[in-house]
Amino acid sequence: MRAHIDHLADLTRGELNRSIFTDPTVYEQELQRIFARCWLLLGHESMLPRPNDFFTTYMGEDAVIVTRKPDGSIGCYLNMCRHRGNRVCRADAGNARAFTCPFHGWTFSNDGRLSSVPGYKEIYLEQLDLDAHGLVPVAQIGNYKGLLFATFDASAPSLTDYLGDMAWYLDMMLDRREGGIEVLGGAHKWLVKTNWKYPADNFVGDSYHGPVSHKSAWMSGFEGMPRRKSGYGYEGFQVCPGGGHGFGVRWAEDKDVLVDMALPEFQAYERSRVDEAERRLGALRGTHLSPMHATIFPNMSLLWQGGALRVWHPKGPNLTEAWGWCFVDRDAPPEHKALMRVHQLQRHGTSGTWEADDVDNWVQCTNASKGYVARQYTQNLEMGLTDEIPDPKQIHPDLRGRLGKFQSEINQRGFYKRWAELMADASAPSTPVMPHTAHACEGAAR
Question: For the whole model, what pTM was predicted?
Fold first, then answer.
C-alpha cells in the first residue's frame, strides 16, 4: 500500500497533516523513496585515518560498513552476509583487512569481495560463484570537504549537484581554515521516541524555539557555558538554497561584531582565525555571516557554535536513533579543541542542557500526532509565508538561494516541499538501482 501524499502537505498554505509523523505506511514509503534514493551522510574522513580503518553506520534502516581500502579509496557496503543475511561486522569501528560472518564463516575482504567460504571444495564442490556473492556496495560514494556521503541510487545526481548552493554556505563551517575540520572521538548515540523529521525540521531553520525552549538554561546561567555577549534576537537570515536543505546565519557588520557573537570562551580563537576565513572565503562569508544551524536533506544536521554534527537514523515512525559528533577546525590549537569537546558535552551531549529541552519537545510533538482527533488538525508552518525577502542580492550581491528573516519557517517549508516531491514521485524504482558486483563502486580518497 502506498500513502497518498497530495493531501498530506500543502506548502503554499504552510500546512502539514500530522499523520506524516506517525503513519507506518508513510514511513515505509520514506525508506524507499527518500532513504534509498538520497545522498546520506556516512561520517567524516578523519574517522578513517589509516588504510583498513572502518566504521559501521546506517543508511535509512540498512546497516553499512564504511572502510578505507589499502589503496586509500573509500568503500561502503551493506553489513549483510550474502548467505543468510547475518551482520558480518559487529564492531562500531576498528582496523581490519577482512570481515568474517560469525554464523557460517563466510569471509569478505575490505574491498567487498567474498574471499573465503568454509567447505568451498568439499561442500559447494567449487560451484559457488564467489564473485557474485560479495558484499553489496552502495551505488555512489561522494566526499565534500571531508564529509563522506553515499547513495543506493545509481541514477542519483552527483553529490555536488545534490548539495547545490548549500555547499557554498557549508564552506563557512567546513573550509574556513586550511585542513578543514575533523571529528573528535567517537559518536554519542541515543534513542529518541520521535519521528526522524522532527529533529531534522528543528535544525533546518527553527531559531524561533530558542528563547522559549532554552530560556531556563539561559536565565540560570547554565547553558553549558556563559551566554554570548551580543543578544540573541532577530538579526540574520534563514537561507533556503533548494533541495530540502536549510541554513541559518546571523549578520555581522564587521569583524568585531562577528567575534562578539561568539561565546566568551571562544572569542580569542575566533579573533585569531577570522582573517584566514576572509582570505579563503571572501568578505561576505568570512566577515559578515556567522553560521548557526543547518540540515542537509534528509537527515544530517549541524550546529556551528557548538561544533555539533548529527545524523537522525530512522528506526520506525515513532523512533529515531540520534548520532552526534563534535567537530572542530583541524588546525585549531589543542586547548580550543578541548574547550569545544567539553562545551559539546555540556550543551549538546545526550544529557546536555539544550538537548534535554529539544528531545522533550520532539517526543511530545510525536505523541500528540498519534491521536485520531489531533490528526484532523493540520500543523502550522506559515511563519514568514508572505514576508520572504524579495531580492537577497539587494542585501549583498553574492548571497544565494531564497532568504527569510531569522524568525521564519521558509526552510521548513522547503524541507517538506522536497519531502513531498520525493514521496509523490511515481517514477521511484520499487527497489534501489545499484551495481551487482562488490567492486563496482569505489570512492576516491580526499
Answer: 0.92
